[in-house]
Amino acid sequence: MKFKTIIQYYFMHIIKALSLLVFVAFLLGCTCSSSDTVERIPYVEALIKQMTIEEKVGQTAQITLDVITKGGGHANYGGLQIDTAQINDALVKYHVGSVLNTAGNRALNVHTWHHLISSIQEVATNDTRLKIPVIYGIDAIHGATYTAEATMFPQQIAQAATWNRDLVYRIAKATALETRASNIPWNFSPVLDLGVDPRWARIWETFGEDTYLISEMGLEAIRGYQGKELNCSTRVAACLKHFIGYSTLASSGKDRTPAEISDISLREYHLPPFQFAVESGAASVMINSGLINGIPVHGSYDIITGLLKNELGFNGLVVTDWADIENLHNRDKVAPSHKEAIRLAFNAGIDMSMIPYNYVQYCEMLVELVKEGAVSMERLDDAVRRILNLKYKLGLFERPFVEPSLDAFSDAHKKIAYMAASEAITLLKNEKEILPLSKGTKILVAGPNANSMRTLNGGWSYSWQGEGVEEFTEDKNTILKAIEMKFGKRNVIHVPGVEYDFNGRTYRDEHNVNIEAAVNAARNVDVIVLCLGENSYTEKPGDLSDLMISENQEKLAIELAKTGKPVILVLNAGRPRLIRRFADDMSAILQTYLCGNYAGDALADILAGDVNPSGKLPYTYPMFSNSLVPYYHKHSEESESPEGVYNYEGGVYHQFSFGHGLSYTSFKYSNLAVSHVEFTNNDELLVSVDVENTGTVEGKEVVMLFASDLYASLAPDVKRLRRFDKIHLYPGETKSVTFSLSANDLSFINAQSKRVTEPGEFALKIANLYKTIKLIE
User: Fold this and answer.
1) Does the structure show a pLDDT above 80 at 75?
2) What is the separation of C-alpha 420 from the centre of its chain, rounded to a whole number of angstroms?
3) Domain(s) of CATH 2.60.40.10: residues in the chain
4) Range 460-464 average pLDDT
5) What's the pLDDT score for residue 8?
6) ∠ Cα 47 50 54 (to 5°)
7) Per-residue DSSP letters for 122-187?
8) % of residues, the chain, pLDDT over 90
9) CA 241 to CA 188: how far, in whole Å?
10) CA-to-CA distance for 267 and 289, rounded, in angstroms?
11) Dihedral angle computed from the Cα positions of residues 492, 498, 504 and 506, in that order, rounded to the nearest 10 degrees
12) Fewer C-beta within 10 Å: the chain N or C terminus?
């Protein structure tokens, strides 16, 4: 296929723009009508006036790349090609407006991406009547997921563990650059779901359990992805997901479990991250695949149009998740036919359908619904307007593809990935200061996660379930390789004891269980680094029925502890697997989460003391499977009687608390002060504290401000995170940290589902310091 040059594209669109002036003359410019807040862009409005019903419907359809490609062999070696007949059917005959995903469930190199997407855009902008470019979308959730050359950064849960806003911004900015260099302008990220249930298979895709932490990190991700201007070859459109309540799992803990959520809970905990993200200008939103109170969210007018579009004022593009309109009929049984499912979802407020295969049926049925009056032309135009607006803002009409370049994949991005991993890894326990280790220490490295790049990255890494990682990471260091490089190969013995069966049917399969061999090897070393956790997974394939770590891994830990050698437990998992049966026997415990391609290097540097750990838990690490409560539980859950589930007979029923994380140095907090002991709704409240590094090495500390409403008309949470900052301190250095609060920052959702701050007393807490303040009327 012959490709046009960028100059030819500019010339073509100048001519096209001139031909549309007659329509533009009748428009009022980029203004909003009184009944519709969606921006009116003259160029887009002129296109809409020319479009047939069929062309409009096609714009709302999104298909997966597999539909329009063919060819054998690995895509990176030239086996993948555009299927001419299929692409003409989809784009020319049915006017499909969007393509997503990769082909063959594997990452492609930059040049393959350029060939495929430029070929798609060639057809869209040359062979269709109105020359409307396609918008391509991808799940680039911790780097350009499906690009072979991409930098794989820590997953979102690990980014949250850094508590470093700037790092999250820099990761998103680098991801945008590498994704756009792959010719993909739309990123299905960030996840703003509440990561509060540790059983969930997607908790590692979230920013943790706290609403404020999620909101802050989400804003940084959006800022990094989108920048100030979408029409830029280094930025991508963000997509907030999954609106809303997706992570609430009722009793099962399994992905897409129907949820029961009160309006109070929805607005108190789930809504704020999305609300702040919408206000920041996020370009698109993906809808929750599940059910809330028996209603599939994809068919809920109240949630999509009422809450998202009307109440929050979202004027961007709303897209479904994978095949979720079809699920209204196939799975949820709320629509007796596929046609009725389309009507239900489209009238609820869906703008684009991620079909991803049955586009012919979708397009033909939606055309029928419009012609029958079951879907109004106004609703169809609204959807098309939102889609074309985003294409216009991304500059796709002027520049539908960019030239391939490896310059975007820089060493600077790799340094950011390493820095993020080194700040995310969390030291949970360090008995007798066993860490850091001296350089000559003889080490046994054991456990199934010791020599795997797949487990360091997790799902959505070069392939959906992460099973393709090893194909692309031969030059990266596993934990074992990094320890060998740091401490010397002659000082390191590797005996796994337990290995994952990467060819097994599920991520849970294990084989080559030889615990005795690991125990025997321990006789000849000074210390054991035991790498336990999980294999890679996400979504339904990652469902589990037992939050305990696997029996084989538990037995390995117990038997190694019996050797009398110090055991440093390294937890490499996407969620906090229960370790209570052997945690007390571990000399040190580190949580690496899913820190990406440079996790091994960062961990080795922490073990050696070259990096001082500064990560903090973004969730509560549970001790028991029946005590899965977040830190912001109610007071009734803290009873010292058998009625309590958080404290039981005086015992704390979590393994590690939210925000926990140790350092190789020590910090002292003093001089907590507030600007107003009594304040009003109009006052700015300043809260300051001094933090001193009282140890012997430099370190980073996360300063967290919690607030407690002492009495309220609804039972208040015991405390809530309201502010945080991460600071660097040299030995002996003291810094003063000041936070600004308003009365609204201490608010809650009341019984009438309204956000209020009631007069009364509040306790402010930073570390072990408290202050009581009072809001007066």
Assistant:
1) no
2) 15
3) 667-775
4) 96
5) 44
6) 100
7) HHHHHTSSS-PPPEEEE--SSS-TTBTT---PPPHHHHHHHT-HHHHHHHHHHHHHHHHHTT--EE
8) 87
9) 7
10) 19
11) -110
12) C
Domain with CATH 3.40.50.1700 in the chain: 425-656
Handedness of CA 250, 573, 577, 538 (dihedral sign): positive
Q: Round to the nearest angstrom and report the end-to-end CA distance of the chain.
A: 72
pLDDT band at 28 (very low <50, low <70, confident <90, very high): very low
Q: What is the DSSP string of 485-516?
A: HHH-GGGEEE--SSEE-TTSSSTT-EE---HH
**DSSP assignment letter at 77:** G
Q: What is the dihedral of CA 660, 419, 549, 464, to 10 degrees?
A: 130
Q: Tell me the three state secondary structure of residue 28.
A: coil
Question: Which class is 425-656 in CATH?
Answer: alpha beta
**pLDDT on residue 402:** 87
Q: Residue 346 contacts by C-beta under 8 Å, 6 or more apart in sequence? A: 60, 366, 369, 375, 379, 380, 383
Average pLDDT score over the chain: 92
Percent of the chain with pLDDT over 70: 93
What are residue 571's DSSP bridge partners?
532, 591
Cα 760 to Cα 712: distance, rounded to the nearest angstrom: 8
Instruction: With beta carbons less than 8 A apart as the criterion, state whether 673 and 641 touch.
Output: no
Report residue 212 as tokens. 């404020």
- Write phi, then psi, for 688 (nearest 5 degrees): -125, 155
Reduced to 3 states, what is the DSSP secondary structure of residue 284?
strand
Q: Give per-residue pLDDT as tens, 262-312.
A: 999 999 999 999 999 999 999 999 999 999 999 999 999 999 999 999 999
Report yes or no: 774 and 737 within 8 Å, Cβ to Cβ.
no
Tokens 């980029």 correspond to 30
Tokens of 501: 């069966």
Beta-strand pair 755-756/720-729: unpaired
Closest CA to 675 of 662, 661, 665, 689: 689
CATH of domain 667-775: 2.60.40.10
Structure tokens of 576?
């906090």
What pLDDT does 596 receive?
Answer: 97
Tokens 């969390």 sit on residue = 426
Specify the CATH number of the domain 52-393: 3.20.20.300
What are the CA-CA distances from residue 560 to residues 447, 497, 517, 526, 568 (Å)? 11, 10, 10, 13, 11
Main-chain phi, psi angles of 398, to 5 degrees: -90, -35
Calculate the dihedral angle through the C-alpha atoms of 512, 598, 540, 505, rounding to the nearest 10 degrees: -20
Q: In the Cβ-directed half-sphere of 540, how many Cα atoms lie within 13 Å? A: 5
Tell me, what's the pLDDT at 17?
Answer: 42
CA distance 93 to 518: 63
Residues annotated catalytic, as ranges: 321
pLDDT digits (tens, 9 = 90+) for 536-562: 999 999 999 899 999 999 999 999 999
How many CB atoms lie under 10 A from the CB of residue 583?
Answer: 17
Cα–Cα distance for residue pair 79/397, rounded to 1 Å: 30
User: For residues 36 and 192, what is the distance between their CA atoms, to the nearest angstrom?
Assistant: 26
pLDDT at 221 over 60: yes
593 DSSP 8-state letter: -
Q: What is the pLDDT of residues 340-382, one digit of tens each?
A: 999 999 999 999 999 999 999 999 999 999 999 999 999 999 9
Chain region(s) in the chain for CATH 3.20.20.300: 52-393
The residue whose two tokens read 């040049």 is 111
Look at residue 103 and give its three-state secondary structure.
coil
271 vs 308: CA distance, rounded Å: 10
C-alpha distance from residue 159 to each of 197, 416, 420, 555, 732 (Å): 18, 11, 7, 31, 28
CA distance 95 to 242: 27
CA atoms within 13 A on the CB side of 371: 10
How many CB atoms within 10 Å of residue 162? 29
